[in-house]
């Protein structure tokens, strides 16, 4: 597995505890509202991670069949504890273990940026959707329009002479809504559109966020390659506190929500 897409050991727990409520849950609430409006019956979630968005999907469509998948078994192990009413499965989004036309909605929050071939992943979404089925793909916008990520990038740059680039390269590396729109069209979706929204997140402190980013994302491997992880996390936390201030912090985060419809044959 590519290091950029690997969550192992304690990473899922750290991610879930320190980043889940502040960074991912507010976006999941937006996703859940969109899904409730569509009222699907058979839902597939890709890159479900520890289940932050799965909770919102479950609440949005309590009676729907819900299958939650992720590439990393350690993520799935946490997710299935959190949302046992979903069926959990390890699956690579680029090679889904489901027949054609199995679902009427595919949702993916902050996963597509990790796909080595985004169009191939979106084509897999189209394949497993029935005609008329919808895809919902959520990506991060510009890192400069994400209070917490941009504070992290500033902090890491102050701490290390050769700062790791994971955050800008991967989670924020697919931040152009025109690219997402074009890729949805290339993958075969009709009526593709991308809406950009700004979501607000709250964290208990900048230290909390630093622990999440440094220990609960693949940034961890890049930091470990440069020095002692605990010492680097403390230094990054101090610099993030200098940027964001002491105590509880509030941030805004730009998000792109792409959608499209699998066409009917001959349409
Ligand atoms: C930033 S997390 C997002 C998790 C969750 N959707 C959320 O919003 O909290 C990215 C997730 O993408 C998963 N992932 C990366 N590459 C993947 C792939 N090719 N197929 C499926 N999942 C993948 C990772 O394992 C990780 O759980």
Description:
The chain has helices at 11-38, 52-60, 73-82, 118-128, 147-159, 166-169, 177-186, 206-216, 219-224, 229-244, and strands spanning 42-46, 65-70, 87-90, 103-109, 129-140, 190-203, 249-261. The mean pLDDT is 97. Strand 2 (65-70), helix 3 and strand 3 (87-90) form a beta-alpha-beta unit. Helix 1 (11-38) packs across helix 8. It is an alpha/beta fold. It is built from ten helices and seven strands. The chain has a seven-stranded mixed β-sheet. The longest helix is centred in the N-terminal third of the chain and has 28 residues, at 11-38. S-adenosylmethionine is lined by residues 5, 7, 24, 46-49, 52-53, 70-72, 75, 92-94, 109-111, 114-115.
Strand and helix layout:
Blueprint: H1 11-38, E1 42-46, H2 52-60, E2 65-70, H3 73-82, E3 87-90, E4 103-109, H4 118-128, E5 129-140, H5 147-159, H6 166-169, H7 177-186, E6 190-203, H8 206-216, H9 219-224, H10 229-244, E7 249-261
Parallel strand pairs: 1-2, 1-4, 2-3, 4-5
Antiparallel strand pairs: 5-7, 6-7
The structure holds S-adenosylmethionine.
What about the largest sheet? 7 strands, mixed
Q: pLDDT under 50 segments (min length 5)?
A: none
Sequence of secondary-structure elements = HEHEHEEHEHHHEHHHE
Kindly state the percentage of residues in helix. Answer: 40-55%
For the record, give the distance between the C-alpha atoms at the N and C termini, rounded to a whole number: 38 Å
How many helices? The count is: 10
Radius of gyration: 18 Å
Name the bound molecules: S-adenosylmethionine
Strand order of the largest sheet: 3-2-1-4-5-7-6
Multimerization status:
single chain
Report the count of strand segments. 7
Percentage of residues in strands = 15-25%
Structural class: alpha/beta
